[in-house]
Amino acid sequence: MGREIENIIEILNFYKALGFRELPQSFIHSLFKTNSHILFSEPRENTKNEILSIDFLNEKIKNCKKCPLSLSRKNVVCGEGNTNAKLMFVGEAPGVDEDIQGRPFVGEAGKLLTRLIEKMGFVRKDVYITNTVKCHPPRNREPFENEISECFDYLKKEIEIVSPQVIISLGKVATYALMGMNGKLRDLHISKIRGKVFFYNQIPVVPTFHPAYLLRNRKDKWLTWEDAQEALRRLK
Ligand code: URA
Ligand code: URA
After folding, report:
1. Total domains in the fold of the chain
2. Domain range holding 195?
3. Angle formed by the axes of helices 5-17 and 25-34, to 10°?
4. Residue spans of beta strands (DSSP E) within 75-120
């Protein structure tokens, strides 16, 4: 349920009359939980509006201070590519190169991802590429539970805006997040999860190996190619 602007002004005046100089956290939370349209405009059919709303979202992400990664990051790494893409890739979190350049998948793992995209018959700017967590975790550690959950709002919104036909989740963290952070998954190796398609809000998600893992385990590239073909079959 949304809240009318007049209603909000009334509440603000009430707090003011009580002598508050700042708003209570609980009020701010309730405002943003129930009025997400105030924070984020809804995605529209029109491409121009979609670009506007991804810009608006990215502005929010760039200013995000919801978790401590915001203190150690050099740059926030937003998603990039075609906001009307049919195919979306979701990685884990920016690495060192991505943190420096402020762009997703630009290091060695990124080069491998770019080759996969090209092998699938696209170029990078045809697809949408993003990460589960938008800031680089120090020393490349895996993102913590709270970092994944705090950041998930952004991924959720990106998926709404891009509205892809298929998502490829790269590695365990992205898969875990898109599967609703089911605790049982967290300790499973991606090799046990891949090969089965699941659905996130009716969008098929094809889990596969993370390209950084493939750099160390080249033989699994064949399985990644099988997963990529499964994703291609599901594109309309
Ligand atoms: N690994 C990721 O998961 N994401 C990047 O952007 C780069 C490396
Ligand atoms: N662990 C991951 O997170 N991803 C892989 O692809 C392999 C191991």
Report:
1. 2
2. 76-235
3. 180
4. 80-81, 87-91
**Residues in the ligand 1 pocket, defined by CB under 6 Å:** 91-95, 98, 104-105, 107, 109-110, 131, 212
Distance 109 CA to ligand 1 centre (A): 7
Going residue by residue through the chain (236 aa), what tens digit of pLDDT does each one get? 455 676 677 667 766 666 666 666 555 655 554 443 333 334 444 455 555 699 999 999 999 999 999 999 999 999 999 999 999 999 999 999 999 999 999 999 999 999 999 999 999 999 999 999 999 999 999 999 999 999 999 999 999 999 999 999 999 999 999 999 987 778 889 999 999 999 999 999 999 999 999 999 999 999 999 999 999 999 98
| CA 116 – ligand 2 centroid, Å | 17
Kindly state whether residues 147 and 93 are assigned to the same domain.
yes
- For residues 110 and 208, state if they share a domain: yes
And the tokens for 95? 């690495």
Residue 99 maps to which CATH number?
3.40.470.10
CA distance 105 to 102: 10
